[in-house]
Amino acid sequence: MPSAQKLSLVFSLLACACVVAVAQPSGRSERPQGPPDSDEQRIADLVLASRILVNEGVLDSFGHVTVRSLKNPAHYFMPRAMPPALVTASEIVELDRDSVPIDPQAPRTNGERFIHGEIYRLRPDVQAVVHSHSPAVIPFSITRERPLRPVLHMAGFLAERVSVFDHRNVSKDDPSLRGKLMVNNAKLGAALAKTLAGDSVVLIRGHGNAIVGSSLPWAVFRAVYTQLNARSQMEAIALGGEVTYLNEDEIKMHSVEVFDVERPWQNLKSRLPKTP
Amino acid sequence: MPSAQKLSLVFSLLACACVVAVAQPSGRSERPQGPPDSDEQRIADLVLASRILVNEGVLDSFGHVTVRSLKNPAHYFMPRAMPPALVTASEIVELDRDSVPIDPQAPRTNGERFIHGEIYRLRPDVQAVVHSHSPAVIPFSITRERPLRPVLHMAGFLAERVSVFDHRNVSKDDPSLRGKLMVNNAKLGAALAKTLAGDSVVLIRGHGNAIVGSSLPWAVFRAVYTQLNARSQMEAIALGGEVTYLNEDEIKMHSVEVFDVERPWQNLKSRLPKTP
Amino acid sequence: MPSAQKLSLVFSLLACACVVAVAQPSGRSERPQGPPDSDEQRIADLVLASRILVNEGVLDSFGHVTVRSLKNPAHYFMPRAMPPALVTASEIVELDRDSVPIDPQAPRTNGERFIHGEIYRLRPDVQAVVHSHSPAVIPFSITRERPLRPVLHMAGFLAERVSVFDHRNVSKDDPSLRGKLMVNNAKLGAALAKTLAGDSVVLIRGHGNAIVGSSLPWAVFRAVYTQLNARSQMEAIALGGEVTYLNEDEIKMHSVEVFDVERPWQNLKSRLPKTP
Amino acid sequence: MPSAQKLSLVFSLLACACVVAVAQPSGRSERPQGPPDSDEQRIADLVLASRILVNEGVLDSFGHVTVRSLKNPAHYFMPRAMPPALVTASEIVELDRDSVPIDPQAPRTNGERFIHGEIYRLRPDVQAVVHSHSPAVIPFSITRERPLRPVLHMAGFLAERVSVFDHRNVSKDDPSLRGKLMVNNAKLGAALAKTLAGDSVVLIRGHGNAIVGSSLPWAVFRAVYTQLNARSQMEAIALGGEVTYLNEDEIKMHSVEVFDVERPWQNLKSRLPKTP
User: In terms of Cα–Cα distance, which of A40, A79, A34 is closest to A59?
Assistant: First the structure.
């Protein structure tokens, strides 16, 4: 699907989300059973989200999760450059719309913060972004004939064929970007966000993926189930024969957030190793 | 095998089970070494069964196990809508033959309780049901040419070719069900139970499976070994060449409950993380 | 290789082992650095061996390890019918050459003790036997075109093509054995031992394997590395192209016990979860 | 690429490394944020490196890591013959340029120390060497048509096609080496080092690999990411279709040590089980 069409789809989905919101008693909140929304709560969830994604094998020594600021929606919160397993609330940095730290004394930030900043710029509906090197998803980024596609009912948030961002498409016209597999400047970040368009997930060739959600629990849930879907699809392909993917009706039914995200969120939290 | 034939097979197997029972000193009880049967004991086992299946990687944040009531065999016990890892005895809800909670003040129940309720209705021999998204089993639900089949001597309870339930077969005649991958109403539950027929296991396309047993330990055992059989079959197929499946004689010999289920049950219990 | 040839090979290997023994200062002992050999020490090692093989994913709720008696080499020691993870010294039963417990009050023994008893009868060089359902090895038992073969330098103890025992070869002439995947009588045990012949490992179709050693540490080491070899061979086959197996020279060089088995034994022991 | 060309490449890379060093404020140190370099520090890191590589599934009961001596760069430090999980500082032996222990009372050393000694001899730029049997990497050593190639942006340190050392190339002209899969003398060690040439990684057919780095953290990082790259490449191949490998520009950009190695090093340390 061309990007323009995808973007127009974002706005239809946003409109659609409003209808769903109206139909629900609790209005805007995406986490009816969760604590009240605030920047303090988002930062606390961000620490949990980092540790959960490490515990579920989505994040390694690198990779990062961020959350949009509630008070200033042009800004977002991100851990400083450090292993996600070790993040605490005091390691979180506030970045502006151009991914520049608000505090000039801020510690060193991740070179790939532009993945997050440029997605927040393009997608007002997105509240949280995960960038990971999730191993089960990587293979689908390096075989052009086999796109990642939804096979699981819990993965209806995946596009019918998940897009793959490849810097070569950008760097072929800009020699200064040649060979750059890292998305560590605004130009590459914007090109990645454009490839994501209105979807939930975009793969990054030979590198990883970026996954968005309307809250940290949703983004975390999607990161975990993108990995599960990838593994199931991979194993089904290895069995041979034709794979049955979700069809348009099924994706439409299951792309909507039809269940209570507090359930996986509470479960994933309970799986964290106890801190002494 | 057509469903009618399958159902007639159920009753033959039930008859056959009686013969086996006669041949055994301890009569009706399926767990000669276990504690005496009672609804309290069944609820205690249900809590263990939930935690065991999480610990063995069969259940994720979702999925559920249930047990039929001994006192009122038309009813069954099921955890409220919550992660199975966190279930305690006080979270168990009693549901009637139509999957309606007995207690009007009962907490919210799982949307997919109809999987259980409709199987209990059709299968008087079934005392326990597991519904999981067991990852190793999923691939066999989404490749039509490769049915799950028994390859392991401990998996003789699997049908020669395990059936796959696909809602598309139902929803093609009922537009209100279009796209519904969740089995969350009585009509879909009944259709699933009919596909299961007299078997032990039925797959649910792009979603998971339902597994039944004559007790919680048997249902848990089967859920664990269905997963192991799936993985072995998958790996044998990947090796190439022709796979040797259990033949009719072997399935007949091993579909009967020929060993003491207390052995895996005690072992799986001992593997649970110690609660502090 | 026909069985007769294999058996003659056993005796050549035994002769060869004597030569090696002569060349070593410490003579007969297979564990120069281990504690002095005695039945008490063998029983203590047997408890460790059971727990190690569970911990390494070789044994599940079933499966068993045994050791020959030093005092009465026609007898062997085996845990009673119970999960191997939970075995203690007081659960060990002494069995005679026909796999009958010495003590008429002995607790219930495993139905498949004949695997061990018949191997000890045929192979005087064998001091320990492992029977497992090691999942990585199973696929090679159910695809006739893909025998398990040594690919790892630590797996030189594997025959060039590991034999597979299939009860169908026996039961086709004996209707009373039809469908019996369990090796739970003397006739099937003897047929299995004959298939093993002079090798270290024999697979059992759709069921598992039996692995022998000149001591418990050697049998445990081989069980762990048979599993690793199986996984590597499986993955190499999945890569496509021709696989390079160990050649005759390499097998000859590495089938001999060229390193100190105390090293993996100490390591595998250190990996056991601490008992409280 | 022929070895001669490879060796000339080493020296170009060394020259290039100097340029990078000049461009950095901190000059020679490879670990700007780590503790000051000394033999005591290297030995402490060596203990950590052994335990980390066991914890990440790279090392089993065998395998070893070593580090060059800072005081006497012709020497190197290596644990005595023992399981890498159990190494402490008091188990470290100093070896000379011919892999002979300095202390005539030194405990027994590993037979395969020549892998390390001969690489240190040929490669003055190398400060640390890992020799492992990393299971995910083995398959690429036993299928000639499928070389290990970089697919991950974190694995730009891999050569375009990673070389495989096979003793058969050496032993075909020297009958005394026939069948020797172990690299346990100087001749085989030198032949292996020559196959490694100027690369970071060399596979050893049917056995494992050797991985080098400019410090222990770099060698450990590379060992972990070689394993991740192998698994991703394997799974991409299993998906079918053409795999996109890193191209020359990407390898050039990412073979340089472009990020702070303290980040994975701190993370991998934090993952170690706590010692009581």
Answer: A79
Q: Whole-model pTM? A: 0.90
**Number of C-beta neighbours around residue C153 at 10 A:** 24
The Cα–Cα gap between A137 and A120 comes to: 23
Q: Are strands A64-68 and A128-132 parallel, antiparallel or unpaired?
A: antiparallel
Nearest residue to D255 (alpha-carbon basis) of D20, D28, D67, D7: D20
Q: Given a cut of 70, is residue D197 above it in pLDDT? A: yes
How far does the CA of residue A20 sit from the closest CA of chain B (Å)? 18
pLDDT (0 to 100) of residue C174: 93
| Sole residue written with tokens 């129940």 | B109
Q: Mind listing the pLDDT tens digit for each residue in D213-222?
A: 999 999 999 9
Nearest CA-CA distance, residue D185 and chain C, Å:
15
Q: Which residues of C touch D180 (CB under 8 A)?
A: 253
The set of residues, in sequence order, having a beta carbon less than 8 Å from that of B45 and lying 6+ positions away, is B67, B216, B217
Query: Concatenated DSSP letters for D50-92?
Result: HHHHHHTTS--SS-EEEEE-SSSTT-EEEE-SS-GGG--GGGE
Q: Which residue stretches of chain C are H helix?
A: 3-23, 39-55, 113-122, 138-141, 168-171, 186-196, 216-239, 248-255, 262-270
Distance from C-alpha of A96 to C-alpha of A74, rounded to nearest angstrom: 7
Q: Of B137, B174, B188, which is closest to residue B158 (Cα–Cα)?
A: B137
Complex confidence, ipTM: 0.88
Q: Mean pLDDT across the stretch A92-121?
A: 97
**Contact yes or no for C239 and D82 at CB 8 A:** no
Do the beta carbons of residue D260 and residue D33 sit within 8 Å? yes
Those residues of chain B whose CB sits closer than 8 Å to some CB in chain C are 151-154, 156, 228, 231-232, 235-236, 238-247, 249-254, 258-260, 263-264, 266-268, 270-271
Cβ–Cβ < 8 Å for C165, C137: no
For residue A7 the two structure tokens come to 């973007």
Distance (Å, rounded) from C-alpha C113 to C-alpha C134?
18
- Please list every residue in chain A whose beta carbon sits closer than 8 Å to the beta carbon of residue D264: 60-62, 83
Tens digit of each residue's pLDDT (9 = 90 or more) over A20-30: 333 333 223 34
Contact in structure between D137 and D225 (CB atoms under 8 Å): no
Helix axes C39-55, C262-270, angle to 10 degrees: 60
Q: Residues D175-185: pLDDT tens digits? A: 999 999 999 99
Are β-strands B201-204 and A128-132 bridged in parallel, bridged antiparallel, or unpaired? unpaired
Rounded distance between C-alpha atoms, residue C159 and residue A82, angstroms:
49
Q: CB A138 to CB D232 under 8 A? A: yes
Phi, psi at A131, each rounded to 5°: -115, 115
Sequence-distant (6+) residues with CB within 8 A of D251 are A179, D150, D156, D158, D160
Separation CA C72–CA C75 (nearest Å): 6
The kind and range of the H/E element at D267 are: helix D262-270
Read off φ and ψ for residue C243, nearest 5 degrees.
-90, 140
Contact: B234, A231; criterion CB under 8 Å: no
How high is the pLDDT of residue D255? 78
* Distant-in-sequence, close-in-space partners of C248: CB < 8 Å, separation ≥ 6: C160
Structure tokens at A231: 């593994």
Angstrom distance (rounded) from CA D233 to CA D77: 34
* CB nearest C253 (choices: D86, D139, D179): D179
In the block, residue with structure tokens 């944040």: B61
